[in-house]
Amino acid sequence: MADQFTKTLILGDFHVGDSRYVNSLLNVVRHHNPGAAFSFLANGTGWQRWFFTGLGLVATVFIVWMLKRHGGQRLFSWALSLILGGALGNVIDRLLHGYVVDFIQVHYRDSYFPSFNVADSAITIGAAFLILDELLRVRRG
Question: Does the pLDDT value for residue 42 go beyond 70?
Answer without folding.
Answer: no
